[in-house]
Amino acid sequence: SRPNLALIGATGAVGTVMRDIVSSRDDVWGEVRLVASPRSAGKVLRVRGEDVVVRALAPEVFDGIDIAIFDVPDEVSAEWVPIAAERGAIVIDKSGTFRMDPDVPLVVPEVNPHDARQRPRNIISTPNCTTLSMMAAMGALHAEYGLQELVVASYQAVSGAGVAGSARLYDEVEALAGDRSIGQAAGDVRKALANKLPDDSPFPAPVAFNVVPWAGSYKDGGWASEELKLRNESRKILGIPGLKVSATCVRVPVITTHSLAVHARFEREITVADAHRVLEAAPTVVLMDDPANGVFPTPADVVGTDPTYVGRVRQAVDFPNTLDLFVCGDNLRKGAALNAAEIAELVAAEF
Ligand code: 2RA
User: Fold this and answer.
1) Ligand 1: does its nearest atom lie under 6 Å from the Cβ of 156?
2) Which residues act catalytically here (predicted)?
3) pLDDT tens digit string along 125-140?
4) Which of 50, 171, 278, 305 has its CA 20 to 30 A from that of 26?
5) Which residue among 17, 77, 129 has the greatest number of ligand 1 atoms within 8 angstroms of its CB, and so is best to mutate?
6) What is the mean pLDDT of residues 226-241?
7) How far apart are CA 66 and CA 46, in angstroms?
8) Does residue 255 have a pLDDT over 90?
9) In angstroms, rounded to a whole number, what is the distance separating the alpha carbons of residues 108 and 343?
10) DSSP 8-state secondary structure symbol assigned to residue 335
């Protein structure tokens, strides 16, 4: 029989892409129920070509639901995911709340699909979008060459901070556009924005005409939460508890699609040709690597699509068994909604 699916957080940035993905992939679902905060309840949204009335999050919305995909803030997941699971739904949760729980698998279908079957709490977590942006590529390389170390710098899109993140960059660009004196004196971008926009940015510095070396919340030692997630989640997904990872996460003026510069050391010797062969064979990875002819992935060229794009593959000159490469992945699709949908389809196949 066809399982019934609930989408919790149906009106957010990821929820919107989620409805699109559920509507465009092979339809394996019975009912698709849309759920959001009481504020959004009663809205009519389209999914699979039909109008569906959004229901307010309440215990009863899980009645008759087999699989529930949550994309809501951490504290909402902390409260409601266990309720959904107790009421019999298998939950796929996008928040950070359960990802490192040893009784909750953290799944990327290309890398560790088998982990989705061990779910003693009835919960499966889907990784942070920054981690996800490189997992298909790094998982494929790891499977043949044995990953040992990752040093990563991220270039993260503003929609990672939700609808408010995208709105802020559009507003900032509009506020600054046309003034060709801007961006040439210390603090002038900040000042111009303070005069024109409310002081409610989700980012700690201007993101237009700028880059911001901060994503997430403050953690001990001066780390940003995104940087630690990248480390901890990569270890768990790849099944390498001792993987050495160090990251610097940076917000850039891109609406959607995260990029990562990755410096990866392997157990075995690996050439650029080896990496090309592995990446070309990986079904969800697209290799765009011909820099002599200007071919490499950029967010603007791949946004709105499903694959993980890899380019700029180089053998590190001074580091043995080490590659440098550049990855782009749509943070709302593979980084969020698509990965959750793929996990949901894995589970649906059990029905
Ligand atoms: C961000 N990774 O880009 C986060 C979203 N979960 O802000």
Assistant:
1) yes
2) 129 (acyl-thioester intermediate), 258 (proton acceptor)
3) 999 999 999 999 999 9
4) 278
5) 129
6) 98
7) 21
8) yes
9) 8
10) I
What is the mean predicted confidence (pLDDT) over 310-329?
A: 98
Residues near 182 by beta carbon (within 8 Å), at least 6 away in sequence? 176, 188, 189, 192, 209
Alpha carbon 111 to chain centroid distance? 15
Does the C-beta of 161 come closer than 6 Å to ligand 1? yes
- Residue 323 backbone phi and psi in degrees, to 5: -115, 150
Contacts of 205 (CB under 8 A, 6+ apart): 190, 212, 214
Confirm whether pTM is higher than 0.90: yes
Residue located via tokens 């990755």:
262
CA 178–ligand 1 middle distance (angstroms): 30
Q: Which amino acid is at 265?
A: R
CB under 8 Å to 78, separation ≥6 — which residues? 95, 97
Mean pLDDT, residues 260-273 taken together? 98
Cα 305 from chain centroid (whole Å):
13
Q: How much is the average pLDDT of 79-97?
A: 98
Nearest to 67, CA basis, from 18, 132, 102, 13? 18
C-alpha of residue 161 to centroid of ligand 1, in Å:
6
| Closest by CA position to 83, among listed 101, 65, 104, 108 | 65
Nearest to 66, CA basis, from 22, 122, 117: 122
Residue 1 has pLDDT above 90, yes or no: no
- The DSSP secondary-structure symbol of 349 reads T
User: Residue 75 carries which side chain, given as an amino acid letter?
Assistant: E
Q: ipTM for the complex?
A: 0.94
The per-residue DSSP string of 135-189 comes to: HHHHHHHHHHH-EEEEEEEEEE-GGGGHHHHHHHHHHHHHHHTT-TTTTSSTTHH
Crossing angle of the two packed helices 225-238 and 129-145, in degrees rounded to 10:
40
Please identify, by atom number, the ligand 1 atom nearest to the C-alpha of residue 331: 3
Q: What is d(CA 216, CA 227) in angstroms, rounded to the nearest whole number?
A: 8
- Dihedral (CA of 116, 117, 119, 122) sign: positive
